[in-house]
Amino acid sequence: MSYDALNIEGPAADDAPVLLSKHAKYFVRFLRLLPSRLASHDSTRGTIAFFAVCGLDVLNSLHLLTKEMRQNIIDWTYGSLVIPKPGERNCSGFQGSRSVTIKTDDEELLRNAKCYQWGHLAMTYTSLGVLITLGDDLSRLDRKSIVDGVAAVQRPDGSFSACIDGSENDMRFVFCAAAICHMLDYWGDVNRDKMFDFILNSIRYDYGFSQHLEGEGHGGTTYCALAALQLSGQLNRVDTQTLENIKRWCVFRQVDGFQGRPNKPVDTCYSFWIGAALKILNAFELTDYPANRSYILETQDDVVGGFAKWPHSTPDPFHTYLGLCGLSFTGEPGLMEVMPSLNMSMMAYDKLKVLHAKWQTRNIEEDHKHYMELLSQRLYDAKIAVEEETTTTITSPLIKAQ
Ligand SMILES: [Zn+2]
């Protein structure tokens, strides 16, 4: 379709193989070397780690990371954890990098930097995804503090902001909030009824979901809305006719690949956003698998690996990961099953369920109290901080850079 529109003859992608090992090397490269053109993504570096680590998992290739490198990534991720001390505002969660975690003896500078140290819902979601996928047991974080941080950014209309100091509030962060609470198996003061109302009020006339109430229906937003409903155990509150209408809107987004909105060009990432939305609705089988695969394969870079959003475009970790997930839904050989609503492999989700079973025997209030006691005694600081000067095993500029 895209080739027709551009009047360019494209490659025959129908029978092209998915270059599994090239994609794995592509992800490993991003964990070892961050290209300078991505410098503007410094504050969201955790998301690049998420796409690379979870991408390797979907490729069943986590073994390409040495045990030492996996531990480095885990330690680096914990280095972005913000933990408010008792009495401080509820801003717990992960940041996307440690660019505002500075080392200095200047008290004023430290005070100023602290103003910008708060958890960000998207970074918290992706950081938890990295930790779970790498098999961490999450014992270095306090589940209650993080969910308190989620509840603190819920708006009166039921939506969520990204962080406590204000940001856009829309369906992206509704999804992140639901994913975090589901992963931590705790909802605390998060108001799920209000979350439900916000989501249902965002269904537009054509049954796509909009980012924020009066907006236009959108594929990524529709995924966020449906995943949040499922993760919060509220999908069954939506009536059957509405669900059928949403399915129809999603199915009609297929051209060969999928588009995010009517009359827009197809884009690799929507093979995940719309594909996963239909998976959640148990309607993915209504799509044309070969046409979907063929489009995604048109965007594959057969030289350096990775997928782009369009043919003849530069691949990136985001479209590479979501393209692979989209292919996984079609049963592509060599790719692991993906859990649609959490956007991670089913193998990682199984690891998470083991943690959930373990947490069943715990009292979260007691754990929180204990964690805070340790924190106030500063016994945990040494465990959480990643001291660069004493860490000689860092192997990646992505992980090493502050
Ligand atoms: Zn895209």
From TrEMBL:
GO terms for cellular component: CAAX-protein geranylgeranyltransferase complex. The keyword Transferase applies. It catalyses: geranylgeranyl diphosphate + L-cysteinyl-[protein] = S-geranylgeranyl-L-cysteinyl-[protein] + diphosphate. Its EC number is 2.5.1.59. It is an enzyme of class 2 (transferase). One of its GO terms (molecular function) is CAAX-protein geranylgeranyltransferase activity. Its cofactor is Zn(2+); Mg(2+). Transmembrane segments: none annotated. Residues 21-344 form the Prenyltransferase alpha-alpha toroid domain. Pfam families: Prenyltrans. Heterodimer of FNTA and PGGT1B. PGGT1B mediates interaction with substrate peptides. Belongs to the protein prenyltransferase subunit beta family. This is Geranylgeranyl transferase type-1 subunit beta. It comes from Stomoxys calcitrans (Stable fly). The lineage of its organism: Eukaryota, Metazoa, Ecdysozoa, Arthropoda, Hexapoda.
